[in-house]
Every structure is written in structure tokens, then in C-alpha cells.
Amino acid sequence: MTSTSKPETGWGFIGASTIAREHMVQAINAQPGHRVVAVASSNEQRARDFAAHAGIANAYADVDRLLADPAVDVVYISTTNELHAPQAMAAAAAGKHVLCEKPLALSVGDALAMVSACQRAGVLLATNHHLRNAASHRAMRDAVRSGAIGQVQFARVFHAVHLPEHLQAWRINKPEAGGGVELDITVHDIDTLRFILAAEPVEAIGLGRQGGMAQKGLTDGVMAVVRFDNGTLVQLHDAFTVKHAGTGLELHGDAGSLIGRNVMTQQPVGDVTLVDANGSRTLDLRHQDLYVTGVRAFCKALAGQGEPAATGLDGVKSLSAALAVSQACATGAVVHIPNITGEGQ
């Protein structure tokens, strides 16, 4: 797939978000022949301030104006979750390629509609699941594939963190915007495990709580168990309210274990230890910026060289499982996770 015949591929940001400012401007501008050329926000002053800070040529208070800009070939969407689907489909209709933050949408139906719209328009859709790009998780995936720990039986994810005040807002008080810990954190855990295990989740059970941060029925802490189709049982601990626990991901097989510490993070940090009958040893990790790595894969996919790190279909599948965890927490029932098939981007 070729994005454009122009000498430079222009990116437009839909949403002047923290992640866009702190990670994505640099990640995109680091790619040869790619540059952020426009930003749109519902708050015009916010768009102007963002553009001035990042050296972006054009700032818009209207998404339609950004999509009409001929300098924009690709859009990166990082608005609140309920806006992802309509904005991505509008971008597809305008012939723009789409890199969208997780979750793709608030429902599986809307997420599948995004995938279909982009396929019909002949544009690339990818999900910005950054944790797939961590050296730690890629090393764990490679170790699993090589048989280093034998048949994987269990996994544990510790992703209980403290959501900083400047990121709270809609995440803790707006159900209609897709707030709550499941669509913010659990969806990342599921996607990371899908990537490492090369397996799909099939059922979930869980309990959620409000630990003093979330409001209006939203959860700010979850403990859940998810069964994957390769037999692996996964325990998830996700939260917005835990200040000092650190993060981690463990895989336990019949021949050994992989212990990852400080690996569920946006930063290129952490370590992984392999423990087996021969003792323990730390895996060699070559850390790189997770967002630069992900954008690089997206840009290569635009040029017809492979797939993005997480396709649109990956985003649908990981969303489906996160919604199942949310439903399980709300009902106390075991929730079946449907098998979603289709052509990836």
C-alpha cells in the first residue's frame, strides 16, 4: 500500500492530547519523509497552542477542515474514546489513512465498522497499542515461540498504577466517553498477551471496584481471570489508584517462567528474567522508544512493507475481550468472548 506520491507524507492530529504532545509528534517526525502538518481540537486555542509548541503549520477547531487539508495524508486520532469511530470513518471517507488510539470504539460493532470503512476506502487502519513495541514483550514473545518455558499454563499481569491528576477527567467520570479502567488499561493487557501468546481470549470473569477515584458507576480497579484458546489462564490486576506497586507480567510454563518487571509502561524500560531448571538469567533487551517503533512499522506498511504493529482487527479483538471483562465485573457471570474473524489491514 502506497500512501502518497508526494515527497513528504503529512500527518494530521485529531485531538491535541497529552500522548500526542509527549510521544507522537516526535515519533512521527523521526520517520524519514513524514511530518505532522496539522492538528485539530474542539478547543481552538488548545489547537493553536499545541501547534505553536510542536512547530505544526496548521491548527483547526474543526475536524472537517483538517480532513479537507490536502497536505494531510494520514490522521492520528487521540480524542476521547466515543469519538474514535465517527472520526476514523470520516477520515476514511476523505481518503486518509488512520492510526487510532485504543480502544478503537466503545462497541465491537462500531470497531468492525471502522475496519470495514477503511477497507472499502483502500486506506490503512492501525491501532496504537504501544506495548507490543516494547523490547521486553518482544523478547517474551520470542522466548515463548522458541519453547524456552515449554507449554504456557498461566500468566499474571500487574498493571495497577496511579492515574495522575491531569489524566483523570473523563477517564473517571464520563461513562459516555468510554471512561473506566477496563477500556484504559485492561485492553492493553489483553492486547499484549494476544501478541506474546499468539492466542485469543475466549472467556472472562472478574470483579471491579471503585477505590475513591472513579465516579458514576465506573470502575477504577479490576481483578479478572481470562482463559485463552491455547489453555492459558491469565490473572489481571488493573487499577488507577495504586501508587507504589510497580508493574509486571509473568508467564509460567511447564518448563520454566518468564518474569517481567516494570514492563507495563510507556517508557522503554524494564527487565525480563528467565527461570528454568538451569537457574535464572536476565534476557538481553535492546530498549527503543515504543512509539517510534510503532510509527516506523505503520510507515513501512503504508509503503507496502508488512503490517502495522497492531492492525485494525487487532484493535477489535482486544476491545472485545476488554468489554467482556467489563461485563463480567458488572454481572458476576462468566462471559464468553466471541471469535472475531476478518481481513486485517
UniProtKB/TrEMBL annotation:
It comes from the Bacteria. Residues 137-258 form the GFO/IDH/MocA-like oxidoreductase domain. Gene3D superfamilies: Dihydrodipicolinate Reductase, domain 2, NAD(P)-binding Rossmann-like Domain. GO terms for molecular function: nucleotide binding; oxidoreductase activity. SUPFAM superfamilies: Glyceraldehyde-3-phosphate dehydrogenase-like, C-terminal domain, NAD(P)-binding Rossmann-fold domains. Keywords: Oxidoreductase. InterPro entries: Gfo/Idh/MocA-like_OxRdtase_N, Gfo/Idh/MocA_oxidrdct_glycsds, GFO_IDH_MocA-like_dom, NAD(P)-bd_dom_sf. It holds the Pfam family GFO_IDH_MocA_C3. Residues 11-129 form the Gfo/Idh/MocA-like oxidoreductase N-terminal domain. This is Gfo/Idh/MocA family oxidoreductase. It comes from Piscinibacter terrae.
